[in-house]
Design goal:
Blueprint (H helix, E strand, L loop, with lengths): L7 H18 L3 H8 L17 E6 L3 H10 L1 H7 L2 E6 L3 H10 L6 E4 L2 H9 L8 H10 L2 H4 L3 E2 L2 E2 L3 E6 L2 E4 L1 H7 L7 H12 L18 H14 L2 H8 L8 H14 L35 E2 L21 E4 L9 E12 L4 H10 L2 H10 L17 H11 L3 E5 L1 H4 L2 H16 L4 H9 L5
Parallel strand pairs: 1-2, 1-3, 10-11
Antiparallel strand pairs: 3-10, 4-5, 6-10, 7-8, 7-9
Keywords: Signal, Transport
Protein name: Alpha-glucoside transport system substrate-binding protein
Family: Belongs to the bacterial solute-binding protein 1 family.
């Protein structure tokens, strides 16, 4: 607890002033109406009329990110008089189900797994959005994104934050010193890997250890390669079990990933051989790049937060990332990513107002100005995105050539997506062959 060093008299005066201010603020709607009519509140006119109402939001976003999120809607709350009560939890997924089952659901939840969203929607727990929210979402997001929160023809909520997973991290300094060029095709990526391996250094480093979630980083590799070896439509069939998990098309993607991840000449720079990938933590997987022991590390945009303090993340910095190249230019520019969706368990007017605002370009820009934020919102101004890797991510998401697909394991039933798929990838890294791995996962798909 902080101890005040302010003189007692000053504290007393401040207390009196504080009481006076509180009394004025509690004078009811007059002060709130004064605020609502101020120039800075002009942008929130359409959301007004709910002064004094409360809306609860529950999500997995915590700590500094939670503080930033609450700051992003502060002006909206001040101008509308809606009090937003936010709660973030590390046990979000499990506790959300408990709260819903117990009749204590939040008004709004930010759900990062479309599979979980679908489960609540099919159980009749979610409320379809208002016409205003739907129009706002369709204005600011592509159909690729909106389909993940559409169940049975009903739309349940716009995306919020996003991340791009189709990145390869590298050291611009090392590339300049060695004369390496950023590859733009799969063949160029493999040629670069061979060139580095010929120097005696293992070009790639990776880590898939993540506590109870060990294995998930390897699933991202397979998902990215499914998008690069197959069409987006085949990817969609795979995540919905339209084709079996051990289909030859899936085997092709896994084997393609294996040309890097199971290649002893390529991995695991700074840590050891192929099997060391399973015991190297996700957080530490790419760090050998900063130590000159590795050159390439495939990981999402959010890995920017894992580099040692003081590391400059920029195109001319200590580390940066390039787009994980496609294999066939005819398949467009496939991008794997994730994000959260703002769904509601209540449909009171003030809840709908908050849901609509969160789908707006105004909110996306408000949050971006605070820092460290990526969104697929088409109204997000790049000038408001300061972090270089975030800016690159937004550019990719806003590129009309981008073919976006959501993280496959988040779309699959939990028994597979966060169960056998993770486990299968660990066993595969440790030596299990492709056919046996995929047959094992296929056998766990809910009947």
């Amino acid at each position: 607890m902080a101890v005040s060093t302010r003189p007692r008299q000053a504290f007393a005066i401040a207390s009196v002033l504080g009481l006076a201010l509180t009394a004025t603020a509690c004078g009811g709607s007059d002060s709130k109406n004064d605020k609502a009519d101020s120039p800075e509140c002009a942008a929130y006119k359409e959301y007004q009329g709910h002064s004094g109402k409360k809306v609860s939001i529950y999500a997995s976003i915590r700590d500094l990110e939670a503080d930033r999120l609450q700051n992003s809607w502060k002006e909206f709350a001040d101008c509308t008089g809606i009090k937003i009560n936010y709660e973030g939890s590390g046990e979000f997924e499990a506790q959300l189900q408990v709260r819903v089952d117990g009749g204590n659901a939040p008004d709004i939840a930010f759900i990062p797994q479309p599979g979980l969203l679908t489960r609540f929607a099919e159980a009749g727990k979610l409320k379809p959005v208002s016409a205003e929210t739907k129009a706002m979402a369709e204005k600011n997001y592509s159909p690729d994104w909106l389909k993940y929160s559409t169940v049975g023809g009903q739309f349940y909520g716009a995306p919020l934050g996003s991340n791009v997973k189709s990145f390869v991290w590298y050291s611009p300094k090392t590339f300049k010193e060695k004369g390496y060029t950023v590859p733009t095709t799969w063949d160029e990526l493999i040629a670069l890997s061979d060139k580095i391996a010929a120097t005696g250094q293992k070009p790639w480093c990776a880590g898939i250890e993540s506590g109870d979630a060990t294995g998930w980083p390897a699933t991202d590799w397979i998902e990215d390669l499914m998008l690069r070896t197959q069409t987006p439509e085949v990817y969609d069939q795979w995540v919905t079990h339209g084709i079996p998990f051990n289909d030859p098309k899936v085997a092709e993607a896994l084997d393609k990933a294996g040309t890097i991840l199971k290649n002893e000449k390529y991995v695991n720079g700074g840590y050891g051989g192929v099997k060391s990938i399973a015991t190297t933590s996700f957080q530490e997987g790419g760090l050998p790049i900063t130590q000159g022991k590795c050159t390439l590390h495939r990981q999402a945009s959010f890995y920017a937060n894992q580099w040692p303090e003081g590391t400059k993340v920029a195109e001319d910095g200590d580390v940066f990332a390039f787009y994980f190249p496609g294999i066939d230019a005819a398949k467009g520019k496939p991008v794997l990513g994730g994000g959260e969706f703002t769904v509601a368990f209540a449909d009171r007017p003030e809840v709908q107002a908050v849901q609509t605002y969160l789908a707006s370009a105004e909110h996306a820009n408000s949050r971006a100005k605070i820092g460290d934020w990526v969104s697929a919102n088409k109204g997000l101004d790049l000038a408001n995105v300061a972090n270089p890797i975030d800016k690159l991510s937004v550019q990719i998401l806003q590129d009309p050539k981008t073919v976006f697909r959501f993280d496959g394991s988040d779309l699959m039933p939990a028994a597979v997506g966060s169960g056998s798929f993770w486990k299968g990838m660990i066993e595969w890294i440790n030596g299990k062959d492709t056919a046996a791995t995929l047959t094992f996962i296929e056998g766990t798909w809910p009947k």
